[in-house]
Design goal:
With 389 residues, the chain is α/β, with parallel strands linked by helices. The chain is built from twelve helices and 15 strands. Helix content is 36%, strand content 25%. The protein is globular and about 70 Å long. The structure holds flavin-adenine dinucleotide. The site of flavin-adenine dinucleotide has 40 residues, from helix 2, strand 2, strand 8, strand 13 and helix 10.
Length: 389
């Protein structure tokens, strides 16, 4: 063998020896984003994704994925800002082909406190965040006691599960040789015993059980329902009080929802549908002639204390040490926090520096960096109200 050929063989052997074997449990938005985030850090890592259901039957498949943060604690704001940046990049480079859509809309509420929280949580990350003036609110929406309502407007992204995740999966399979195996896994330790160097737990609501360390006690479902409609003329999202909403995606409009904590029923019942539809018609009567073309029920994977993004080491039955990375429990914001938490989990999986996350995990407040700081928009004034009187 020539010296050049043996040098090449030696080099290849080193690469083979060093390539890390990573197993990921879950092909929802969290598992798929984490696989991609790992590959973007190190394309030579071997990744196998395990999932126990077909993609069309999991939570992430049915979701419109509007960007909005419920709990604005510092780590979520970082995850959200990183996700927003990623979605903006996908929108620039691939547009709707990536499942990402740029969309504007309104949130109406009688609670000034809740609207203020939107500004705190993500108002400085999204585009065009403004408070509606009284005439703007009054001319668009027919509300009982409308003088009690205030509203915000912003522009952000949807990342529709049924398009965004397959788009990432295609990239993973075709460009990065990631393998997918349909198999039920009992716990992360099962894959540790199979000899993986790293096991990443993106099991959604099952994440606590898969962790096999008692975290299951912190997990609980929040039942939700979505109605898919043919109201293709609806181009803006519209929320009232964070539960009654429409979200337009690429070729449909979703109407929601209910938020039932600790209810794990996957039955799509007429009572829930009527409740959602009735509440929405009150907000936007123009929907009376709209057709419901599909319906979907899902359980938000909520966790006391928020998403668990954390690494640990355990020994397998052969006595070898392996790393476990948890990335589950994103509740009602998995698409909003997903890319940021995937980047964090990927760094933990590969042993990269995570100081920017570690610091925030212990903080209760975060000052936004100066370059993204904007002035809080003005609230509706008496002068605004006077215009329509
Ligand atoms: C009505 C509704 C509306 C929502 N709207 C939004 C929104 O607008 N914006 C937003 O950001 N979020 C929204 N969410 C929240 C979002 O849907 C979730 O946070 C997100 O889908 C969670 O993704 P996941 O990958 O963790 O879980 P899942 O999508 O549930 O995926 C879990 C994966 O783990 C696998 N798995 C589980 N157990 C095992 C096992 N034992 N063995 C092998 N594989 C296993 C499953 O097969 C699956 O592939 C909404 C949720 C609901 C219900």
């Amino acid at each position: 063998m020539s010296p050049l050929a043996s040098a090449f063989l030696f080099q290849s052997l080193i690469v083979c020896i060093q390539a890390l074997n990573v197993a990921i449990i879950g092909e929802g938005v969290i598992g798929t984003s984490t696989a991609l985030a790992i590959k973007r850090l190190d394309k030579d890592v071997n990744i196998t994704v395990y999932h126990d259901k077909d993609f069309k039957d999991i939570l992430s498949h049915g979701i419109a994925g509007l960007f909005r943060i419920d709990d604005g604690k510092p780590i979520n704001r970082l995850y959200g800002a990183q996700t927003f940046e990623r979605l903006a990049e996908l929108w620039r480079e691939f547009g709707g082909n990536s499942g990402v859509q740029l969309v504007s809309g309104h949130i109406l509420s009688q609670s000034q406190e809740k609207l203020d929280a939107q500004w705190e949580n993500y108002g400085q990350v999204v585009y065009n965040y403004v408070n509606l003036t009284y005439p703007q609110l009054h001319s668009q929406f027919k509300l009982e006691n409308d003088e009690l309502y205030k509203a915000i407007h912003y522009t952000a992204f949807t990342s529709e599960g049924a398009r965004y995740i397959p788009w990432m999966k295609k990239l993973l399979e075709e460009t990065y040789d990631v393998m997918y195996i349909k198999q039920h896994i009992d716990s992360v330790e099962e894959l540790g015993d199979d000899g993986y160097d790293v096991v990443v737990n993106c099991g959604g609501l099952a994440g606590g059980k898969l962790a096999a360390d008692g975290d299951e006690k912190k997990m609980y479902p929040i039942r939700g329902l979505l109605l898919k409609t043919n109201a293709s003329w609806q181009k803006h999202f519209l929320y009232r009080d964070f539960t009654t909403f429409t979200i337009p995606v690429i070729d449909a409009v979703y109407v929601g929802t209910i938020k039932e904590e600790h209810n794990d029923s996957l039955v799509i019942d007429e009572e829930s549908i009527e409740k959602i539809w009735g509440a929405y018609l009150e907000l936007q009567p123009a929907f009376k002639d709209v057709e419901i073309i599909d319906r979907f029920v899902g359980l938000r994977p909520a966790r006391v204390g928020g998403a668990r993004v954390k690494a640990e080491t355990r020994n397998n039955t052969n006595g070898n040490e392996y790393r476990i990375v948890h990335n589950y429990g994103h509740g009602g914001n998995g698409f909003t926090l997903g890319w940021g938490s995937a980047e964090h989990a990927a760094r933990l999986a590969l042993g990269f520096d995570t100081s920017q996350y570690d610091e925030l995990l212990n903080r209760v407040h975060i000052d936004m960096p100066k370059d993204v700081h904007k002035e809080k928009p003005k609230e509706m004034s008496d002068q605004d109200r006077a215009i329509v009187k």
